[in-house]
Design brief:
Length: 309
């Protein structure tokens, strides 16, 4: 049997293919129940703390509403409004929070902060985006792909653009799910090497594959899923101008997607810089499933919380 209760959810690397498939199936079932108006409240009386060091629309709203729908309540804790913003340590914060709460999420810059919070806490901790990864996003994305394609194994995922947190989790998810992942980033913006290495190792166990390329056209050839994200993530705003130059051959536009499969899915974690990393024609086109992805953040995270809390 799967042992998920009490676990942290810091990255897909810590979850087996079987566990990820279980969470995807649970997310789909939770979504079905929700649409049918059937109550599903396994977390009655429980509380989730949500610490944010950066902005958020989807993550904040979907966790807060999701926790409410599961029968519990959520507290939004902006880093600057709690004592952490004045230097109370993460370890002390973790121990205090553990005395009140049943689970915590953290959106932070340094991934080590998430690891440290989890180390100090006696309750499950969920990574709500760090510089290294965004596992909740990838879970919702693969739920979306599964709903649209009916399967995941063997599909080709092409990521075009910045080698960032979103890429890392998408790549690890593809590897764990037996998919073929290819990315293309400009020089200097490749994904993190350790992340690539551990994804390649994961893919070796599932029959999936991981390729890190320079050429966008080569990466997108025959893709079932075409994914991109902003060129300047949160914390990199001052590099916007130089990144626009570096990424100019990495826009997902009509010419580029003509090399993907005809029935490809266009995906983006959002928020998007329309007209920059993706043209309006592609992001609003018939292949785009961006709002299904956004919606599935709710269902996928309810599955995570229900499973581990
Ligand atoms: N995709 C995502 O995490 O969006 P937010 O930054 O709005 O939470
Ligand atoms: N890569 C983006 C994702 C936002 C959801 C960022 O980190 O800002």
């Amino acid at each position: 049997a799967l042992q998920l209760k009490g676990r942290d959810f810091l990255g897909l690397v810590d979850y087996s293919p079987e566990e990820i498939r279980y969470l995807l199936d649970l997310a789909i079932e939770i979504k079905r129940k929700h649409k049918a108006g059937e109550a599903y409240q396994p977390l009655k009386g429980k509380s989730l703390g949500m610490i944010f060091e950066k902005s958020s629309t989807r993550t904040r709203v979907s966790f807060e509403v999701g926790m409410y729908q599961l029968g519990g309540q959520a507290l939004f804790l902006s880093r600057n409004d709690i004592q952490m913003g004045r230097g109370e340590t993460i370890l002390d914060t973790a121990q205090v929070m553990s005395r009140y709460l049943d689970g915590m999420i953290l959106r932070t810059f340094g991934h080590r902060n998430v690891v440290e919070l989890a180390r100090g806490a006696t309750i499950p901790v969920i990574n709500a985006l760090s510089d290294q990864s965004h596992p909740c996003q990838a879970l919702a994305d693969y739920q979306t792909a599964l709903e649209h394609k009916g399967k995941l194994e063997g599909l080709k995922v092409a990521y075009i653009g910045d080698g960032n947190n979103v890429l890392h989790s998408l790549m690890m998810g593809a590897a764990k799910l037996g998919m073929h992942f290819a990315s293309a980033s400009p020089e200097g913006y490749d994904p993190d090497e350790r992340s690539v290495k551990s994804s390649i190792e994961a893919a070796a166990e599932t029959g999936g594959s991981v390729r890190i390329l320079r050429d966008a056209r080569e990466a997108i050839e025959g893709a079932d899923i075409v994914y991109t994200d902003v060129w300047a993530s949160m914390g990199f705003e001052e590099e916007q101008k130089e990144r626009e130059k570096a990424f100019k051959n990495y826009q997902v536009n009509e010419a580029l997607v003509s090399h993907a499969k005809q029935d490809y899915l266009f995906m983006h974690c959002l928020p998007a810089h329309r007209g920059e990393e993706v043209t309006e024609g592609v992001i609003d086109g018939k292949n785009s499933v961006i709002f299904d992805e956004a919606e599935n953040r709710l269902h996928a995270q309810k599955a995570i919380m229900a499973a581990i809390m």
